[in-house]
Amino acid sequence: MIRYALVRGALLIAGLLVASVLIFLTLRVFPGDVAQLIAGTQASPDEVAALRESLGLDRPLLAQYVEWIGGLLRGDLGTSLLSGASVGEEIVLKAQVTVPLGLMSLLIAVLIAVPFGILSALRRGRPGGTALSVGAQALAAVPVVWAGMMLIVVFSVWLGWLPPQGFPRTGWATPGTAFQSLILPALTIGVVEGAMLLRFVRSATLQAAGQDFVRTAAAKGLTRTSALIRHGIPAVGLSIVTVLGLQVAGIIVGSVVIEQLFTLPGIGRMLVADVGARDLIKVQSELLVLTGFVLVVGFLVDLLHRAIDPRQREAA
């Protein structure tokens, strides 16, 4: 297990290194000049050139990349070219919105997908199972922005139960208000992602129903449903854990859009604003943090899968 973890850890580091190179080079291809943006349209070419030199933007790309990576290794994510603020401090501040939003969304997706996916499989061929399957297909195809707008109309405009947008200025100092502000955004992401996960849970449960050990349990006196619940569904859990790791990427992408729709001061909204402002140092650090989070989740899922699946240990 230790050797496997070391190998996966080395692959994780290699993946982060490749991602950093791609992010760095891609941002340099985008049109626009940060120095010109900071200096303003009235600045002379000499003033823009002097500002570009002071910001270090005139140096070779390799030197800029090495300086950025060196700072990351020291725990320094850099300084914003526009505001002069610490990128690391801003990411930590915005993460207080994005991380709870992601966790709530993932919880809602699991609570929707697992019980209803299993129920849909158990009721296959019956009206209830067909309705769940069709409903999941429809919800999975719904754009997350449209789903968010519909939830705002229903729960904020018609019923008036939840705030339509915004996040309290005091943040989590007022936990009740902060939690209420994240309910609709989390429901928006969780319902769409949950519908997609439900289809997988249903398919995996039906596949487990055809396994020999389930049929053997049924032959020994258990009903088909009891045999599937007692022996088939635990076997499905490994696959669900793997897919949940992949869902994290979908939730991160969804949070970027949803934070714009609900005007939440999270990492996603900050990233969109910084891309528009061409704040290269800030954008590349934000993208690398998000990429690293996805890769770390995949790494942990691999370790968990290895730890709880005896077949992988026996194969090793």
Key descriptive features of the protein:
316 residues; 79% helix; single chain; mainly alpha; MetI-like fold; 2 domains
Question: What this model shows, in words?
Answer:
The chain has about 325 residues and is mainly alpha-helical. It folds into two domains: about 1-75, no CATH class; about 85-315, MetI-like fold. The chain has 13 helices and no strands. The chain has helices spanning about 1-30, 35-40, 45-55, 60-75, 85-120, 125-140, 145-160, 175-210, 210-220, 225-260, 265-275, 280-310, 310-315. Helix 5 runs antiparallel to helix 10 (about 225-260) and helix 10 (about 225-260) packs across helix 11 (about 265-275). The longest helix has about 40 residues, at about 225-260. The chain starts with a helix and ends with a helix. The mean pLDDT is about 85.
Overview in brief:
The chain is an all-alpha fold. The protein has helices at 2-29, 34-39, 45-55, 61-73, 87-122, 127-140, 144-158, 175-209, 212-219, 224-261, 267-277, 280-308, 310-315.
